[in-house]
Specification:
This protein is an all-alpha fold. It folds into two domains: about 140 residues, no CATH class; about 30 residues. It is built from eleven helices and no strands. Helix 2 packs across helix 3, helix 3 packs antiparallel against helix 6 and helix 6 packs across helix 7. The relative contact order is 0.12.
Length: about 170
């Protein structure tokens, strides 16, 4: 996902307008998440990001004032790491998975849908012949391979057992 972040931002931070454009291009909006969900995800993470950049004195003042507006007036953005968190939060809040209790399944399936969306083709057109966007590369190949049993439509108990086995194999 970071390669998409870099194409969309051309810098190290992503503002709300670019985040929303990414969500529209990759069909997160309106297919998977509505605008209030995207707004909440972005600004919650932007607040956390900005708060982490503040000195202890500034944080104390913000806590005393008890308003997020103070922080947003100084800049609202996501860094690379908070962008990845935003994608995960969108996966967890997606209306596609309202009845799915398994978090790993939600995230893997969500990212897979993003990579199959029109956004991937849009980015390839914009990026031109950048090596990291080769058609031969499937970023989900290793994940699908490792979690094959888990990603198949089976009972919830079978999914849980497959996931547990996959994590046990790692350790």
């Amino acid at each position: 996902m970071l390669r998409y972040f870099k194409i969309y931002t051309e810098q190290t931070i992503m503002e709300y307008e670019l985040f929303f454009k990414f969500c529209r291009d990759f069909e997160i909006f309106p297919e998977m998440c509505n605008k209030p969900v995207l707004h909440a995800v972005f600004y919650d993470l932007a607040y956390d990001e900005k708060q982490a950049d503040l000195s202890p004195e500034q944080i104390k003042r913000i806590i005393l004032i008890k308003t997020k507006k103070q922080v947003f007036d100084n800049g609202e953005y996501l860094s690379e790491s908070t962008f990845v968190k935003a994608i995960i939060m969108c996966a967890l809040k997606s209306r596609l998975f309202e009845n799915e209790p398994n978090v790993v399944y939600k995230v893997i399936t969500f990212v897979d849908k993003l990579l199959q969306s029109k956004g991937t083709q849009l980015v390839k057109k914009v990026a031109g012949k950048i090596r990291m966007f080769s058609d031969e590369i499937d970023p989900m190949r290793e994940i699908r391979k490792k979690y094959t049993k888990f990603l198949k439509k089976t009972s919830k108990q079978d999914k849980q057992e497959a996931l547990k086995k996959a994590f046990e194999d790692d350790n």
